[in-house]
Design brief:
aldehyde dehydrogenase (NAD(+)); alpha/beta; NAD; aldehyde dehydrogenase (NAD+) activity
Length: about 500
């Protein structure tokens, strides 16, 4: 494993870092100083300056100019450039994965896995660049042909969250680029350095291929930058990942100007475990889903809905599994759980624990804020499990922390109703070896989530499928399948190759 200074140097990250970039030029913002602190030990890693409104407008103007040139390049050529980016991320996987782990706090394995997602989506986008298909249709008029084609939208604004500081950007950017769009990325102000690193990694690819300045833009800043992006009619699509509260504000701002938005918001994900489940398979999926990234995934398992006949056995198995968890420095590959992102997240964990107790909930695995030796000034908490009722207000909310609610059910219909009876609708799962139970869960009257799995947990979505959810999760779809269509505009074309002009519906109009 490289030391901190080694991977910061490898990624060209210095003590002071330019927070704005248009792919060819980088500069310090004119706003306030933004320091990035590691939740691993509370130390300041490095700093940058936030963008001013003048900085932001300069970036937008550059991106608009770049779009006029970038959209003219053939899609397979754009795909080739993305392929080269993927190679650069392969070369820098270890260093960038360590930086993700250190700046965000997720385990090293998860940090490396996040960089692998960038590599995978680059591969996917390369193939997609030759598959931006439209349809042909038969015309009702003689000597006419109808077809549809897809064109780039323009400037795409990407607002990403701290929990996946680089992967979610890549889901959007790589697809948008092969579609012919240009991108402006506003990373979370809690994880700006990983974003700067990504821009540094691809900068040589952009220059070597004479990519116009402004195709890949980075703007570091706080909430005000996100508001500028949402309100800006020059931005054709705003892709925002974060809380439901944030997404609602973005949707309202973009909607007022009749723009397009792609929202990936909160999750309150459940796993149903039936009496016919293979618990040997289920337990690792439940535990990883609940404690992976310290419960700070939108796909984290929040609720475990267990049949009454195996409820007590499930509690015993969870106690045994949780007692084996190792909590500590995420750069130590032996540890399973790293810190929460900051003290505010720790406070939210504590407030949720108090609320569970006030409702009469009992903890199967006790909560604890971890201080002292081995934890330093980091933000470490113990993953916990509480017996709860689905209708409690605190259970209806998404708490970004490793808190799992254990809920009992008697019939599969009741379990599905519990699963669906929350405002969010991102990911869901059922563990069963009964084909009828599995198909019932996947049917139109089953899970109401955008993701529904059988014998696999709620987290760990593959890039080949469209990612996203319903209800307060926002309805957006990113990554695979036909999610590319969100980044393009559809155009229907009718071509007359005849010698006269027959009008639709038999209308005659003589001159």
């Amino acid at each position: 494993m490289t030391q901190l200074n080694d991977f910061l140097n490898l990624l060209n990250i210095k003590t002071q870092n330019p927070g704005l970039s248009t792919g060819q030029e980088s500069w310090d913002g004119q706003g306030v100083l933004l320091e990035s602190y590691s939740p691993v030990n509370g130390r300041c890693i490095a700093s940058t300056k936030e963008a001013s409104r003048e900085d932001y407008d300069r970036v937008i103007s550059t991106a608009q100019a770049a779009f006029k040139e970038w959209r003219q390049k053939p899609a397979p050529l754009r795909g080739e450039i993305v392929r080269q980016m993927g190679e650069r991320f392969r070369q820098n996987k270890q260093a960038l994965g360590e930086l993700v782990s250190y700046e965000m706090g997720k385990s090293l394995q998860e940090g490396l896995g996040e960089v692998q997602e960038i590599i995978d989506i680059c591969d996917f986008a390369v193939g997609l660049s030759r598959q931006l298909y439209g349809l042909t249709m038969h015309s009702e008029r003689p000597a006419h042909r109808m077809y549809e084609q897809w064109h780039p939208l323009g400037v795409v604004g990407i607002i990403s969250a701290f929990n996946f500081p680089v992967a979610v950007w890549s889901w959007n950017a790589m697809i948008a680029w092969v579609c012919g769009d240009v991108c402006i990325w506003k990373p979370s102000e809690k994880t700006p350095l990983t974003a700067i690193a990504c821009q540094n990694i691809i900068i040589d690819v952009l220059k070597a291929n004479n990519v116009p300045e402004g195709v890949s833009c980075l703007v570091v800043g706080g909430r005000n930058v996100g508001e500028w992006i949402a309100d800006d009619a020059r931005i054709a699509l705003v892709s925002a990942t974060g809380s439901t509260r944030m997404g609602r504000a973005v949707a309202e701002s973009v909607g007022r100007r009749l723009g397009k938005s792609l929202l990936e918001l909160g999750g309150n994900n459940a796993i149903i475990v039936t009496p016919e489940a293979d618990l040997t398979v289920a337990i690792p999926a439940i535990v990883f889903g609940a404690v992976g990234t310290a419960g700070q995934r939108c796909t984290s398992t929040r609720r475990l809905i267990v049949h009454a006949s195996i409820y007590d056995e499930m509690k015993q198995r969870l106690q045994k599994a949780y007692n084996q968890l190792r909590i500590g420095d995420p750069l130590n590959a032996n540890n399973h759980v790293g810190p929460l992102i900051d003290e505010q997240a720790v406070a939210s964990y504590e407030a949720t624990v108090r609320e569970v107790l006030s409702q009469g909930g009992a903890f199967v695995i006790e909560p604890e804020v971890l201080r002292g030796d081995g934890f330093g000034s980091g933000c470490y908490v113990r993953p916990c499990v509480a017996e709860a009722e689905n209708n409690w207000a605190i259970v209806q909310q998404e708490t970004f922390a490793p808190i799992l609610y254990l809920i009992k059910y008697n019939t599969l219909e009741e379990a599905i109703e519990i699963q669906n009876n929350v405002p969010q609708g991102l990911s869901s799962a059922i563990f069963t070896l009964n084909m009828r139970e599995a198909e019932r869960f996947l049917s139109a009257s089953g899970s109401d989530c955008g993701i529904a799995n059988v014998n696999i947990g709620t987290s760990g979505a593959e890039i080949g499928g469209a990612f996203g959810g319903e209800k307060e999760t926002g309805g957006g779809r990113e990554s695979g399948s036909d999610a590319w269509k969100a980044y393009m505009r559809r155009q229907t074309n009718t071509l007359n190759y005849g010698t006269d002009l027959p009008l639709a519906q038999g209308i005659t109009f003589e001159l």
